[in-house]
Amino acid sequence: AATSMQPMSESSSAYRRIRQYADVKWDELGFGLVPTDHMYIMKCSKEDRIFTRGELKPYGNIEISPCSGVLNYGQGLFEGLKAYRKRDGNILLFRPEENALRLQMGAKRMCMPSPSLDQSMLSSKQFLLTNVPPPGKESMYIRPLLIGTGPVLRLEPAPECTFITCAPPVGNYYKEGSAPLNLVIEEVIHRATPGGAGGVKTISNYAPVLKAITCAKSRGFSDVIYLDSVKRNILRKSLHGNIFICNFLRGNWISTPPTQGTILSGITRKSIIDIAIDHGYQVQERAIEVEELIHADEVFCTGTAVVVAPVGTGTISMKLHSILTGIQTGLIADKMGWTVEL
Ligand code: COI
């Protein structure tokens, strides 16, 4: 991957890293773990539980106490954000502050200290010389992780927390590429309940739904729609993101369930709502009944990893997808001020 960030001497470590990633088969990237050469790691001190200085280290395993809060009680959060390379070689991070803020909010809920906004931004920027794919070849997925690494036996917050960021280059999330999604409604397994942590990106929201997605995949479906755990005929979200339905009979309506503390406030969700309004659609956050799926003109899902994925055919979702990725890759002017250019 070439870069036009700054002139580099051939002996500089940045130059060597870029050479190393020139070998990635960019056209064959899926959403798998392409080995990366570095990770960013920062620990908070046990005494004042404040993050001070992180370091960029070779990517590898970390040592962790078998009694750590994360291993025993699931005290952990993760984030996901993307960086794209523009045609001119510069790099665009998409709404990194939103992820940093969401991490801080989640950390409060999970009783963990969190990195400052500047520290989160810095951790993401550490990777931008290395494996951001060339223009037009998908993106780099930055995965910050905040976990309770200190040992505990009693159920209490871990005395030490660690913030780690890795950043593999990724392509399409779904193996089917950009083919339409094929969703199934999950009626038995619920993802979140009122008062729980469904609105937070905690690691403990993910393993309990593996059973639903594994079962759905074995039946040929690509994703699962979860229902409201109380009103069981109301849609909540898909496994990988948020769900939208479109109705064009009486106006240009696009609807999505309100987050209400049980759905993660997706950054792609927010962005699509704003883009849709800006392009003349009327957007409603409202309770959507299962039956409405049958009558909807279009249904689509959004998420950082899945971007905007149509269910069946999707003219509007394809339009919203191309506007969003146009902004993310610098092909469309970013009048919202969402991207950070490096
Ligand atoms: C993301 O879209 O960033 C997510 O966290 C979804 C994850 C299951 C890959």
Automatic annotation (TrEMBL):
The record's Gene3D superfamilies line, in alphabetical order, gives: 3.30.470.10, D-amino Acid Aminotransferase, subunit A, domain 2
Q: What SUPFAM superfamilies does the database record attribute to this sequence? A: D-aminoacid aminotransferase-like PLP-dependent enzymes
Q: What's the cofactor?
A: pyridoxal 5'-phosphate
Q: Name one Pfam family in it.
A: Aminotran_4
Annotated positions of the N6-(pyridoxal phosphate)lysine modification: 201
Under Gene Ontology molecular function, one entry of this record is: branched-chain-amino-acid transaminase activity
- InterPro entries, from UniProt? Aminotrans_IV, Aminotransferase-like, B_amino_transII, BCAT-like_C, BCAT-like_N, BCAT_family
Top-level taxon: Eukaryota
Keyword tags: Aminotransferase, Pyridoxal phosphate, Transferase
Biological process terms from the Gene Ontology for this record are: branched-chain amino acid metabolic process
The record's similarity note reads:
Belongs to the class-IV pyridoxal-phosphate-dependent aminotransferase family.
Full protein name? Branched-chain-amino-acid transaminase
Organism equals Papaver nudicaule
